[in-house]
């Protein structure tokens, strides 16, 4: 069951440029020369599988970035980031991903998408669960701090499209992206130091919550590998310029043969 944006979302910036429509079933964010706009979830979560359907800015979206991310508060914050970097009409968007742990990032990857993200709504999911696969290798993994969902559309034409060469064409403004079917049925809401998953009927580590223990089985590893082979255009783990002292430990995790 999808939630209602009136109930679950606060519009936090953009002076009227982000709007809840259709009785709470649809949400739009927009960007013009004066400002972008954005929203956040009312709830904070500690572990979640969150789904949202998004239809990105169509046509000439060069220089715009639509971000969709989970983030905690404060200087040593955790963040799981999806950023969609716009492009000229007919040229591909880039999906830029990053993870911040305790304020440290430098974990960027970039992908082309295998579909047109502007032609229709597509479902984007963030699965954040306590399996510390990466942490086991000595890397901090977002674990302790509750995070909130954020999304926004803004001007990033100093870096987004072809490294900043292509600027926003303001004659095409306003730029608008749409959202629907925000699904937090598989999210543990965090409030006053307790989790909604932490009741007697549904213990926090209950194995009835499949998403909480989902890890990459062989078939999903295989799919991920195929996407990486065909669509990945940047990986911090293969960029020696980023890590003159050597790559971070998770880069040495073994992958499929
Ligand atoms: C935009 O299109 C150009 C030309 O196809 C491509 O090099 C670039 O990676 C695309 N995406 C972005 C966000 O720059």
Automatic annotation (TrEMBL):
GO terms for molecular function: hydrolase activity, hydrolyzing O-glycosyl compounds; xyloglucan:xyloglucosyl transferase activity. GO terms for biological process: cell wall biogenesis; cell wall organization; xyloglucan metabolic process. It comes from Rhamnella rubrinervis. The keyword Transmembrane does not apply. One of its GO terms (cellular component) is apoplast. Catalyzes xyloglucan endohydrolysis (XEH) and/or endotransglycosylation (XET). Cleaves and religates xyloglucan polymers, an essential constituent of the primary cell wall, and thereby participates in cell wall construction of growing tissues. Glycans are attached at residue 87. Keywords: Apoplast, Cell wall, Cell wall biogenesis/degradation, Disulfide bond, Glycoprotein, Glycosidase, Hydrolase, Secreted, Signal, Transferase. Its EC number is 2.4.1.207. This is Xyloglucan endotransglucosylase/hydrolase. Signal peptide: none annotated. The lineage of its organism: Eukaryota, Viridiplantae, Streptophyta, Embryophyta, Tracheophyta. The keyword GTP-binding does not apply. CDD domains: GH16_XET (cd02176). Contains at least one intrachain disulfide bond essential for its enzymatic activity.
């Amino acid at each position: 069951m999808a939630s209602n944006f009136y109930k679950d979302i606060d519009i936090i910036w953009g002076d009227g440029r982000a709007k809840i429509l259709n009785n709470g079933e649809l949400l739009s964010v927009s960007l013009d020369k004066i400002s972008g706009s954005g929203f956040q979830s009312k709830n904070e979560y500690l572990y979640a599988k969150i789904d949202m359907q998004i239809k990105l800015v169509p046509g000439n979206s060069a220089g715009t970035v639509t971000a969709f991310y989970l983030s905690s508060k404060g200087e040593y914050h955790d963040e799981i980031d999806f950023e969609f970097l716009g492009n000229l009409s007919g040229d591909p968007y880039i999906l830029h991903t990053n993870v911040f742990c305790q304020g440290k990032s430098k974990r960027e990857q970039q992908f082309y998408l295998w579909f047109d993200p502007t032609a229709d709504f597509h479902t984007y999911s963030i699965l954040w669960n306590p399996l510390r696969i990466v942490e086991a290798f000595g890397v901090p993994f977002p674990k302790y701090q509750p995070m909130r969902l954020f999304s926004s559309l803004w001007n990033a034409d100093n870096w987004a499209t072809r490294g900043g060469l292509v600027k926003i064409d303001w004659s095409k403004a306003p730029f608008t992206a749409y959202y629907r079917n925000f699904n937090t049925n598989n999210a543990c809401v965090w409030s006053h130091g307790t989790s909604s998953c932490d009741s007697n009927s549904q213990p926090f580590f209950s194995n009835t919550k499949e998403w909480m223990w989902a890890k990459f089985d062989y078939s999903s590893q295989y799919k991920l590998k195929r996407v990486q082979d065909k669509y990945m255009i940047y990986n911090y783990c293969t960029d020696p310029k980023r890590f003159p002292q050597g790559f971070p430990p998770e880069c040495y995790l073994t992958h499929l043969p």
